[in-house]
Amino acid sequence: MSYMALYREFRPKSFEDIIGQDHIVTTLKNQINSDRIAHAYLFTGTRGTGKTSTAKIFSKAVNCLTPIDGSPCNECTACIEINKGTLLDVVEMDAASNRKLENALDIIETVKYPPQSARYKVYIIDEVHMLTTQAFNALLKTIEEPPSYVIFILATTDPQKVPATILSRCQRFDFKRIKGDDAFLRLRHIINMKGVFAEDEALKLIAKVSEGAMRDCLSILDQAISMGDGRVDRKLVSEMLGITGREAIYNLIDYMSDGNIDSALREIDSVMMSGKDIMQFIKDIIKHLRNLLVVRVSKNPEDTIDIGLDTVNDLLEQSRKLRYEDIVRAINIFIEAEQEIKLTSQWRIVLEMAIIRFSKREYDISTETLLKRISRLEDIIESGSIVRSTPQKEKEVPQRRSELAASEAVKDIEVTSPNLDDSNSTPSVIEEEEDTASQGVGSMSEQQAKGALVEVLNILRANKKMTVYAHLVNGKVQKVEGNTIYISFRDEFSFSKTILEKPDYTKGLQKYFEKYISSPVRLKFIIEKGEDDSFNESINRAKSLLGEEFVEVIE
């Protein structure tokens, strides 16, 4: 006999074999025992929760010659033929491949004829939401008032696509996702039946990864048994599914919370070199962060997280290194990364940008983070670290780095205003504008270039092109020569310059600039020169934001 997949070999044969759906099983058995069987049912729920299996068991139960407390005996002629799929009175139809009006008309035609050997003629229509509107309309009258010997069982994973006129004619049963404990017990039972060795931790991992779908559990177990040659352990399942080990995720969270970007990026490189799936890795990070959040806010986290006490203690220890708002921010960052990865082939860059955003708050340009920076700046002003003073000439500002309150406050918000002028030689706003106008060469002025940069950043953000936006926002217009715009980056943003210099990125950005300026544009990306540029920039921006009369440099 040819090999049969586990999910087919161990398909439930009676209501007692259905797990996690007690509310449905009890109702159906009571209807059979009291002979109050409806003419149409709608079974809804995610994949692998037992919709089709329950429909087949129900079709056996209503036609069983010797039912046992509402369940089929699986020994009479009707039960045996239904199990084999040879009973003509039980019709199973896949609506995904039989969705046209002609298929609906075939059902309407055959409904007229009574069952040949069974008590009821049962139509099981799987994935019913795939039927066309015309097919649904044709079936309306038949489903509403079928012959007394006909039962319709409609199954779907997407009930929102089923017309309300159909829904109102059916008894609806919602199938729940199967709990991890129930799935584990079922897997253990099957392993014992097959005589295969499997660690409990491996089976629990399979149940967890399957997310409540029993068929997925059995498919993964089937593959693991083949891969392990009859021996299934947690390491084997992790390698097969591309799941990253706990240690790598714990280390990565520690590195990010400490702001250690170098170590975090090396950890990512190690994960990728081991052949792990990046998408699965991000999902594992999000789940880990969710667990950190739960242990941080819950008094009994073991009731919510399906893990051992030792793991809860490890999570609790790591959660103490992070504030509540930091964990929430991290979850949002990695959820955004998960969505963005689906739209690009540059998976690694997206993941690394997410890590950098979380590790270094000054690189995070989200609205929430910017508001917090502004709030901190206001606190600094109110505390008196930045005091009112008589306006001073720029040449009197000491040209050395020191721990200045004004400088530190501005560092927190410098990424938010890429269109601010950063000239080091301009003593006032008026002189700065005159100098800028005089530097424009050809048909394009420096002011036009800066306006174009702001507009391009807005377009990138509106179009959800966050990877390019996150790099370009680190730059500023340094100068304009003819039709060439020079965009400069500080040394710490050299990686952004490297990324944007790739031909695809450069050509795409040039097109955006040309649309705004209405003339050909060339982009050049350069690194800023001079040690004191950053210090002077901070002072200038503080004066621009707060007013010169409110800024005093404290030595």
UniProtKB/TrEMBL annotation:
UniProt family annotation: Belongs to the DnaX/STICHEL family.
Record-level GO cellular component terms: DNA polymerase III complex
CDD domains registered for this protein in UniProt: AAA, HLD_clamp_pol_III_gamma_tau
Catalytic activity: DNA(n) + a 2'-deoxyribonucleoside 5'-triphosphate = DNA(n+1) + diphosphate
Sequence segments annotated as region (Disordered): 415-444
Name of this chain's protein: DNA-directed DNA polymerase
Annotated NCBIfam families: dnaX_nterm, PRK05563.1
SMART domains per the UniProt record, alphabetical: AAA
GO process terms (BP): DNA-templated DNA replication
Ranges for domain AAA+ ATPase: 37-179
Keywords tagged on the record: ATP-binding, DNA replication, DNA-directed DNA polymerase, Metal-binding, Nucleotide-binding, Nucleotidyltransferase, Transferase, Zinc
Record's keyword annotation contains NADP: no
GO molecular function term, any single one: metal ion binding
Gene that produces this protein: dnaX
Gene3D superfamilies: 1.10.8.60, 1.20.272.10, P-loop containing nucleotide triphosphate hydrolases
EC numbers on record: 2.7.7.7
InterPro entries referenced in this protein's UniProt entry, alphabetically: AAA+_ATPase, DNA_pol3_clamp-load_cplx_C, DNA_pol_III_gamma-3, DNA_pol_III_sug/sutau_N, DNA_Rep/Repair_Clamp_Loader, HLD_clamp_pol_III_gamma_tau, P-loop_NTPase
Compositional bias per record (Polar residues), positions renumbered to this chain: 416-428
Enzyme class label: transferase
